[in-house]
Fold DUF2171 domain-containing protein.
Amino acid sequence: MFEKDQIREHMEVIGADGTHLGTVDHVDGDRIKLTRQDSGDGRHHYISTGLVAEIEGDTVRLSATGANAVLLEEEEEG
């Protein structure tokens, strides 16, 4: 099990299949805010911390594959 405070800025976020999904900007409540550089549309995207399977060094591995995790991303409001 992991604690949210283990998730730090600049960690890589990958899917269960190893697909790079983004880089952590910071944790915002129960969501991981990803940096804009990885978004493709210049906006922040969010991933629920409920999708985190484990933390390995500087990598956050999700329980969903990359393709499925992208479908579960949320965009910033506004």
Observations:
- The chain has a mean pLDDT of 91.
- The first strand starts at residue 12 and ends at 14.
